[in-house]
Each structure stands twice: as structure tokens, then as C-alpha cells.
């Protein structure tokens, strides 16, 4: 079953300004707004750990088998919808093109594999270390991490890949894994919100969900607003060996956003409203760590060939994790005055942009001494801006709010040594006028066309139309 890809806008929100100066009757003042970083690739800032730690191929060196290339037309598509599959007895049968690989010409029909590939950790050109999952894509030949092969069959070949940020981040786009070895027949994606102390599943993947996990197969398209947080098992991404467009395994973030924001994410007000009012929903898209549990390698939907176990392994060329981002002030290394990008697990250049969860109290992060941290505004502090600064406990800390769109509500921390802050508005004597609404007794949200502390004045439409025209100095 193929997965129909939805096309969504690259950015799904703004809130990039934390405060701006405005003119009031009392003079120049600060207008505070909810703010957050923009989205970018978060794999630049992670640490990766493998379990078992010696599972990477090449120590000792080994030879492995890789499937031969598909017979593709010049347009990059299969010449036929039918692929000839070779069974273990050497006979051929017709089978659907999304299940099996076609043997290339010149390859023995009983073994459509090339078994002259080497993995050697001591030779750069033949090594496949974990950092190759996060390097620049587009190289030829493709670079990838690879596990050792299934030499200990029937003992399971299982690998845990743990990605850690040492920081809470909010996911804004699909998680995408690209495999070079055929997609796993069984896999689990897990998340942690407490830096890897506890784990919960995000999604299960299998060629047969009932057999592998006793779960009915579903897809992201089967989810509704009421079931969005359900953990499902999908068979969409485990269909053996196929051509290059089917190398990926996805966890669909934007399809879930679309349940509230519409098919093309045009109704962001609805999504922001849900994120504001439903903590479980916001937490669902928040992580500190991801764990990829590879439970069974691709076998081509055939019986495991115990005489040729070097054909079974895991190989991943790319992992994409998209999250919130901001301009980074990072510790950098310079050579001759030129900034150089760093490899995975190293300090990134200042032009790269991480996304932190900052509780809508910051629009930028810093990457320093191997850690991400928010540059907090609104008199807040902490790695996630999750508490008020000293002497600013005039009211309890609160997360910022996306509403009302487009500026949201900052919920700033106020001084604690000046007594109660005077009310600007209320629902009794200091009512906001002309359809305005009072927020936290500190500000009137005015209707379009009106301004003033209590929305009592018509907004000027042009020079000369009213005496209190506000102009920049």
C-alpha cells in the first residue's frame, strides 16, 4: 500500500517577535507578545548512542551482500508493474512490484545479491560509522551507517538507536528515516520527555502488525481529532525491497496537525487553540530523546537463507528530525576568518539554527558547551524559560499563549517588590470599549479600527484625519 503524501507549507507559524515598542498616552512602552523559534533540522545538535555498542559493522572487517540495482527506465520508473521473483528452488513467479526485487541481468537467479561489498572500520572508504546518518546528503556514492550482519541467526538481530538533545524540543515536521538495506520488517519508534529515563511508543511498524505486535494495521489517515494521540501500527513502510522512492520510513507529524488545521494547514488558529488548551496534545509533539528500535531486518518476504546470512543487516543513510529553530549564537571554530560547519556531534556553525521548546518566552537559542538553551524574554529564565527570574514573582509563572492570533499573549513575569500591579482594565469600571477585550487586567485587545488604553479612540486612517496620529520619531 503506497502512502499518499500531503504537501504543506514549509512554515506553520510565526510568533518570531517577543516584544516591540509602542506609543501610549504615557509615552514609549513595551508591547509583549508570545514568541517562539522557527523550524529547522535538529539532527545537527543531537548525540547518538547504539545498543549494543559494538553493533556497527567493520570491527572485525566483514564482507556482506547487497541487493543489485533495479531495472529502471530512463525516467527512473519500473519498466513493468510485474517483477520476477526468484524462490529458493530457482523457479520464478510473478509478484507485485511493491513486494520484491527484480534480479539484475548477469546475477544468478537463485541469488540476486552482490556479495563483494566490504565493511572495514579501519579504512575510511569502507567504514560505516553512526555519524554518516547525519552528514550532508546528495553525495555519490551514498554514505550510511551499517550494522553487522545477521551472523548469529536465529538469535534476533536487534539494535537500539537513541537520539538525545539534552533539551526539550517541539516537533514541527515529519520524522523521516532513509534505509539503504531494505526497510525493517519490524520496528518501533519511541519518545522520552525526561531525558531517557522513561520511554513511551510513538508508532509501531511491521509487514504484519497482527503477527508482530498483536495490533490492527492503521495509517495516519485513519486518525481523527479524537484519536490523534492513539499509538498505531502501520504496514505502509515495511514492504521489503523496492525502488529508491520507497526507502523511507516516516512518522507523520503534519498529517496529525492537519486534523485541526485542515488538509493544507491553512487554519492554524484551530491548531494553536488546541495546543493552547490541551496539554497532552502539546506534550505529544514534545521530546527530549527519540529511540529507534530495529527489531527485524528486511528479508524480502522470503524465508531467511541460513546459508547466506551476510545479506541481512540494517543500513541508514539519513535521519531527519524537524523542530523549532532560531538564530543561534553558538561556540564556533574559525580558520582564517572563515566559519566551518562541523560534523555530527560537534559544535555547529553560527549559521545553523536549532529549535528549542521555550514555552513561548523566547525566539532564539544558544548552543554552548554542547547544550542548547533558550535566550529567555518576558522576565523568565531556565533552559526552557520555565520559571520567573529573581525578583519577578509578582504572579505565578505561566506558559505563553498562542491566542489571540496573531500575537498571542506573553504572560510575562512581573516584579515582586512593588506590590500588586495596578489594573489597566477589568469587567466593571475599566471596561474595554468598542468591542475590545480585557486580558489579565493589563491590556485591552482592541477591535480593528480602534486604539487607546481602553480602545476608546478610532485608529487614524491617514495624515490629517485625526490629531493624535502616531508617527515614528
From TrEMBL:
SUPFAM superfamilies: EGF/Laminin (SSF57196)
InterPro entries on file: EGF, Laminin/Netrin_ECM, Laminin_N, LE_dom, LMN_ATRN_NET-like_EGF
Highest taxon of source: Eukaryota
Pfam family, one: Laminin_N
SMART domains from the UniProt entry: EGF_Lam, LamNT
UniProt domain EGF-like: residue ranges: 421-456
Residue pairs linked by disulfide bridges in the UniProt entry: 446-455
Domain (Laminin N-terminal) ranges: 31-324
Entry keyword set: Disulfide bond, EGF-like domain, Glycoprotein, Laminin EGF-like domain, Repeat, Signal
The keyword Secreted appears for this protein: no
One BP term from GO: axonogenesis
Transmembrane segments: none
PANTHER family: NETRIN-G1, NETRIN/LAMININ-RELATED
Entry protein name: Netrin-G1
Species for this entry: Liparis tanakae
Gene (name only): NTNG1_1
Amino acid at each position: 500500500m503506497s502512502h499518499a503524501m500531503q504537501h504543506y507549507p514549509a512554515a506553520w507559524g510565526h510568533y518570531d517577535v517577543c516584544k516591540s515598542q509602542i506609543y501610549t498616552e504615557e509615552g514609549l512602552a513595551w508591547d509583549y507578545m508570545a514568541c517562539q523559534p522557527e523550524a529547522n533540522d535538529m539532527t545537527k545538535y543531537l548525540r547518538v548512542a547504539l545498543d549494543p555498542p559494538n553493533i556497527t559493522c567493520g570491527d572485525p572487517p566483514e564482507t556482506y551482500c547487497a541487493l543489485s540495482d533495479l531495472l529502471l527506465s530512463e525516467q527512473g520508473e519500473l519498466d513493468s508493474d510485474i517483477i520476477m521473483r526468484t524462490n529458493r528452488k530457482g523457479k520464478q513467479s510473478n509478484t507485485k512490484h511493491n513486494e520484491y526485487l527484480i534480479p539484475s541481468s548477469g546475477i544468478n537467479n537463485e541469488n540476486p545479491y552482490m556479495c563483494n561489498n566490504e565493511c572495514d572500520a579501519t579504512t575510511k572508504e569502507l567504514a560505516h560509522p553512526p555519524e554518516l546518518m547525519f552528514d550532508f546528503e546528495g553525495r555519490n556514492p551514498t554514505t550510511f551507517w551499517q550494522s553487522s550482519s545477521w551472523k548469529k541467526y536465529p538469535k534476533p538481530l536487534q539494535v537500539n538507536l537513541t537520539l538525545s538533545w539534552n533539551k526539550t524540543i517541539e516537533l514541527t515536521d515529519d520524522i523521516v528515516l532513509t534505509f539503504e538495506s531494505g526497510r525493517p520488517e519490524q520496528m518501533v519508534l519511541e519518545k522520552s520527555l525526561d531525558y531517557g529515563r522513561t520511554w513511551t511508543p510513538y508508532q509501531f511498524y511491521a509487514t504484519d502488525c497482527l503477527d508482530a505486535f498483536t495490533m490492527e494495521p492503521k495509517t495516519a489517515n485513519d486518525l481523527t481529532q479524537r484519536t490523534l494521540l492513539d499509538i498505531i501500527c502501520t504496514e505502509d513502510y515495511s514492504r521489503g525491497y523496492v525502488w529508491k522512492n520507497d526507502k523511507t520510513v516516516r512518522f507523520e507529524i503534519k498529517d496529525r496537525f492537519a486534523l485541526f488545521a485542515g488538509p493544507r494547514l491553512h487554519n492554524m488558529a484551530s491548531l494553536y487553540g488546541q495546543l493552547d488548551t490541551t496539554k497532552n496534545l502539546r506534550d505529544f509533539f514534545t521530546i527530549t530523546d527519540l529511540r529507534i528500535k530495529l527489531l527485524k531486518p528486511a528479508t524480502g518476504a522470503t524465508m531467511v537463507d541460513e546459508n547466506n546470512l551476510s545479506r541481512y543487516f540494517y543500513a541508514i543513510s539519513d535521519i531527519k528530525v524537524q523542530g523549532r529553530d532560531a538564530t543561534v549564537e553558538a561556540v564556533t571554530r574559525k580558520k582564517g576568518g572563515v566559519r566551518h560547519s562541523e560534523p555530527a556531534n560537534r559544535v555547529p556553525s553560527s549559521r545553523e539554527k536549532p529549535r528549542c521548546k521555550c514555552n513561548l518566552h523566547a525566539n532564539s537559542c544558544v548552543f554552548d558547551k554542547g547544550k542548547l538553551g533558550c535566550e529567555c524574554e518576558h522576565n523568565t529564565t531556565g533552559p526552557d524559560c520555565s520559571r520567573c527570574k529573581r525578583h519577578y514573582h509578582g504572579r505565578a509563572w505561566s506558559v505563553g499563549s498562542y491566542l489571540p492570533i496573531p500575537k498571542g499573549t506573553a504572560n510575562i513575569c512581573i516584579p515582586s517588590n512593588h506590590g500588586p500591579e495596578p489594573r489597566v482594565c477589568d469587567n466593571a469600571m475599566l471596561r474595554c470599549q468598542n468591542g475590545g477585550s480585557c486580558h489579565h487586567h493589563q491590556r485591552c485587545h482592541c477591535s480593528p479600527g480602534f486604539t487607546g488604553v481602553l480602545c476608546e479612540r478610532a485608529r487614524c486612517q491617514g495624515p490629517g484625519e485625526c490629531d493624535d496620529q502616531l508617527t515614528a520619531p
